[in-house]
Structure formats: C-alpha cells, structure tokens
C-alpha cells in the first residue's frame, strides 16, 4: 500500500508540476477592486516549498514581483465580506485551461491572515505579526478539500474581515497549501500573495499573533502528510483562527 500511494503521489506531482496559481483579484462586498489592483502579485505562478524562507510571507523572492508593484490600498470596512479570486496565470480566467484556477490534483486547505503594517505599500514585510481570520480544510465525510471548493466556485472564496479588529493599514495574506506531493518534506506547495488594505471602523481587539516564517514547521502534520488515503481528520497548519 505504501508503494502504491507513493506512486500515486509521484504521478500527481509529475503530471501537474506546472499547474500553479496566483491570487489576483479582490472583491469588497461583491464589488471588484480591479485586476491585480492592490495585490503584490508575482510574474511567475510557482509555489514556495521552504516554510523557513521569507518567501512564505508574501511570495516574491524566487517568484519575482510583477512590475510595477501596485500602489493601491484597498479601502475595506471592518466586518465587510472579502472575495479572493485565484487563477492559473495572470491573464485571469481561462475556460479552455484545464488547470484554471488550479489543477484538481493540488488538494489541500486555504487560509487567510491579516497583519497590521505602518504603510501597506512599504517594501519590507519582514517582522510583521499575523493572525488567522479564516480557513477551509478537509471535510472528512466526503474527503473534499478547500481547493475542491475553490475550483467549484471558479477560483473565488469569500470570508469576513473581523468586525472587532482595530482600524488601520493591513496586509491580507491569502494562501493555498497544495498537498499532492507532501508525503515528505519539502513537498507541500504553498501559494500566497498579499493584498494591501485600509480597514476602517472596527473595534479594539488585539489578537494573538504569529510570525512568518515561523508559523509553520516542516514536521507539522498539516505540512507533511500522505493524502492518498482516507483521512478521518486534518490539522490545518498555523494558529487557531480569530473567533469573531
């Protein structure tokens, strides 16, 4: 059984090695903020596999940022609904592309984090303190993943900006963790980009935070895992999400 599942993992990886994805559109309460506006998108759609790298913060690094980087800061009221849209390439939706928004083999969870920042357009993103606001992992009853639901919804997922957090400028870090080759480390493929937000209103909650890198370890059961079996549960990496 081990050899068979390892072979399945290899086949999935080999047949979809270039089936990557990019977070490239933000909607606020259903209103499109414009293609790649306010998002630090890379030119290349590849993953990060080293969870100890600074590249897990907002991508970049081995996937150079698209130039010029957007100087837009998206206004969002605390409590608003945010929709994040992903596609295989920066060209956006492509019905003829079987790997759009991401190849179906790339099963895994989705997460969203926020970090307060002095200036949402500043170049340096190291040292920020992040808190998780949303996640979508495994549904054991039918073995479906957050990625399956992303694909079914044509690359879009919707979640709420917490109404209780302080107003100010933030980065929204939206992430897909693809587990099709995660039986050993490094194998999990992390896709993430950061959107630049100005959050207004809100409250005074100061959530517990984590750092990137640091929030994930290569030994985490949500990072190194064989998904080619029936799973009774799955632990999404990182901290608990903020309860609203």
UniProtKB/TrEMBL annotation:
Superkingdom per UniProt: Eukaryota
Keyword Electron transport assigned: no
Main location: secreted
EC number: 1.14.99.56
Domain Auxiliary Activity family 9 catalytic intervals: 20-233
Keywords linked to the UniProt accession: Carbohydrate metabolism, Cellulose degradation, Copper, Disulfide bond, Metal-binding, Monooxygenase, Oxidoreductase, Polysaccharide degradation, Secreted, Signal
Leader sequence residues: 1-19
Reactions catalysed according to its record: [(1->4)-beta-D-glucosyl]n+m + reduced acceptor + O2 = 4-dehydro-beta-D-glucosyl-[(1->4)-beta-D-glucosyl]n-1 + [(1->4)-beta-D-glucosyl]m + acceptor + H2O
GO biological process per UniProt: cellulose catabolic process
Keyword Disulfide bond appears in the UniProt entry: yes
Xref: Pfam families: AA9
GO cellular component: extracellular region
GO MF term list: cellulase activity; cellulose binding; metal ion binding; monooxygenase activity
Cellular location(s): Secreted
Comment on protein domains: Has a modular structure: an endo-beta-1,4-glucanase catalytic module at the N-terminus, a linker rich in serines and threonines, and a C-terminal carbohydrate-binding module (CBM).
Function: Lytic polysaccharide monooxygenase (LMPO) that depolymerizes crystalline and amorphous polysaccharides via the oxidation of scissile alpha- or beta-(1-4)-glycosidic bonds, yielding C1 and/or C4 oxidation products. Catalysis by LPMOs requires the reduction of the active-site copper from Cu(II) to Cu(I) by a reducing agent and H(2)O(2) or O(2) as a cosubstrate.
Entry protein name: AA9 family lytic polysaccharide monooxygenase
């Amino acid at each position: 059984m081990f050899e068979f599942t390892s072979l399945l993992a290899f086949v999935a990886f080999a047949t979809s090695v270039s089936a990557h994805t990019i977070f490239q559109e933000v909607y606020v309460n259903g209103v499109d903020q414009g293609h790649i506006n306010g998002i630090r998108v890379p030119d290349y759609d590849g993953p990060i596999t080293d969870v100890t790298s600074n590249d897990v913060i907002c991508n970049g690094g081995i996937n150079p940022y698209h130039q010029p980087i957007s100087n837009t800061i998206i206004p969002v009221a605390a409590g608003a609904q945010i929709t994040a849209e992903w596609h295989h390439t920066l060209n956006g939706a492509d019905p003829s592309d079987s790997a759009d928004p991401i190849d179906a083999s790339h099963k895994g969870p989705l997460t969203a984090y926020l970090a307060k920042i002095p200036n949402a357009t500043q170049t340096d993103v190291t040292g920020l303190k992040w808190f998780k606001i949303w996640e979508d992992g495994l549904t054991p009853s039918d073995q479906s993943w957050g990625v399956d639901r992303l694909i079914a919804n044509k690359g879009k997922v919707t979640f709420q900006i917490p109404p209780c957090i302080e107003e100010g400028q933030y980065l929204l870090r939206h992430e897909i963790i693809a587990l099709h080759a995660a039986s050993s480390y490094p194998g999990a493929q992390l896709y993430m980009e950061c959107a630049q937000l100005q959050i207004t209103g809100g409250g005074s909650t100061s959530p517990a935070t984590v750092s990137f890198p640091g929030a994930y370890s290569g030994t985490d059961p949500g990072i190194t895992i064989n998904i080619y079996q029936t799973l009774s549960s799955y632990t999404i990496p990182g901290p608990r999400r903020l309860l609203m």
